[in-house]
Amino acid sequence: MDNIVPKFSIIIPVYNSENYIGKALDSLxxxxxxxxxxxxxxxxxxxxxxxxxxxxxxxxxxxxxxxEKNGGLCSARNKGxxxxxxxxxxxxDNDDEFQKDSLNIIWNSISKLRCDxxxxxxxxxxxxxNGKRKIDIYGCKNIVNVGDRPQYVTREELFKNYRSxxxxxxxxxxxxxxxxxxxxxxxRFDTSIKAGGEDWLVNLxxxxxxxxxxxxxxxxxxxxxxxxHSISTTYQTNRIDAIVKCANLERKLIESNSIDLTEILYSxxxxxxxxxxxxxxxxxxxxxxxxxxxxxxxxxxxxxxxxDISNKIRKLSMLYKIYMILYIKKRYCLLILLSEVIxxxxxxT
Length: 349
Prior knowledge:
Elements: E1 8-14, H1 21-29, E2 36-43, H2 49-59, E3 63-68, H3 73-83, E4 88-91, E5 97-98, H4 102-113, E6 117-127, E7 133-138, E8 151-154, H5 155-160, H6 162-168, E9 177-180, H7 198-209, E10 212-226, H8 237-256, H9 262-279, H10 288-298, H11 318-328, H12 332-346
Parallel strand pairs: 1-2, 1-4, 2-3, 6-10
Antiparallel strand pairs: 4-9, 5-10, 6-7, 6-9, 8-10
């Protein structure tokens, strides 16, 4: 792109996405916006994805293609970060889309707020095997609602109201975020994580470094969760490993920023529930004794060992208090049964 520094570097890992990558790229290339580069990292695709990407690179000067051996999603994103030349970095999955005029909205918001990180909402479309779809919007929940003015938050304000921002969804996903490139100087995706959770881990590191975060209510990204082949809907022990890493890192984040230690309990309850949900998967074939052993093992991890802050339990709501008491007392069978009932009642997928 000559010597002009792009405003955005949009990184897209590509792997066997011949049916979707064209639509994903068109959603970006049809933006009424100038000054951005699209970095395609072909992660050893075995279908027509590489040829499709080569055609786009040939036709568009701002599309750059890098062909790599298959190393996984994290490895591909890391390659994109290394070659990115934009002022801000964005991420996109190879089967998703950006809404019309998204880049203009994002750039105008960043220019006004001058924040290190900008978060916006994303529309998740869950596509089930029977053809049915479930749609929800998430990302800045209860932080900025439709029609609200953009919000600028300093790191001090973010950590002072930690639970509200954590519950908003701004720690999950990287597609509905824009990050100043300098934040990635020493941050990369953990290539040992193969089945989800890598984005949460990176977000925790980025919030530790960022001096300010902006929030806008616009839903600009369309995230397709195709249940039949989504990694997040299959049983993977590696997903449990990722959750443990997140719990360990989040505890450090909370302690180093003088956040009320009760927040460790709140975050751990969610991590434990996620792990139990993974173990519930029909493909896990885990017996109760196997599940109990997994919970006993994770309770020894720094981020999930809460014995030293058990006095904080009194601050929890009744249900959370019961949940954590069962965990601390190692009443894992009851904890698993309680979690299964709650998840089923909520219809979690």
